[in-house]
């Protein structure tokens, strides 16, 4: 889940958007203070839309 990385980034003041592939991951990311993008690693359209939402210039 990358929880250690998410926590380190949030503690350093970064905005984090995490890819949640399950309701459990969604709940954990939300509780940690990260934004959530629902999707899977093999859904390229979902990944692209998540990237564009974070950086519209890409």
Automatic annotation (TrEMBL):
- The UniProt record lists the NAD-dependent epimerase/dehydratase domain at 1-49
The identity of this protein, by name, is NAD-dependent epimerase/dehydratase domain-containing protein
Q: Which Pfam families match?
A: Epimerase
What is the species listed in this Swiss-Prot or TrEMBL entry?
Answer: Paenibacillus gyeongsangnamensis
Q: Which InterPro entries match?
A: Epimerase_deHydtase, NAD(P)-bd_dom_sf
Gene3D superfamilies to which the protein is assigned, alphabetical: NAD(P)-binding Rossmann-like Domain (3.40.50.720)
């Amino acid at each position: 889940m990358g929880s250690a990385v998410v926590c380190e980034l949030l503690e350093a003041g970064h905005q984090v958007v995490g890819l949640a592939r399950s309701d459990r991951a969604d709940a954990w990311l939300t509780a940690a203070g990260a934004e959530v993008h629902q999707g899977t690693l093999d859904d390229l359209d979902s990944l692209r839309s998540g990237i564009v939402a974070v950086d519209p210039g890409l």
